[in-house]
Specification:
about 80 residues; alpha+beta; two-stranded antiparallel ribbon; 2 helices; about 25% strand
């Protein structure tokens, strides 16, 4: 039984995620998201889906990108 690196819980159904050559152990997807998902450059929310990117920044949505001055991104075509 492995301990979750986010919350420390020992769980018999823990799982491993290999990311950038390093193995991480979690007891839930919630903990994996908290530890590994990128954060929006504007509002700080964890980005679980694709998000939108401009230059070297990632945003949860086009609204947040516009709030940071990015004009070309749209949520819908």
């Amino acid at each position: 039984m492995a301990s979750c690196e986010t919350c420390g819980n020992n769980y018999d159904k823990s799982f491993e995620v290999l990311w950038a050559g390093k193995t991480h152990v979690f007891d839930s997807f919630e903990c994996a998201i908290h530890a590994l998902a990128p954060q929006c450059s504007h509002c700080g929310t964890r980005i679980v889906g694709h998000g939108v990117e401009a230059d070297d920044r990632i945003f949860c949505c086009a609204h947040c990108a516009r709030s940071q001055g990015e004009k070309s991104l749209k949520d819908r075509a």
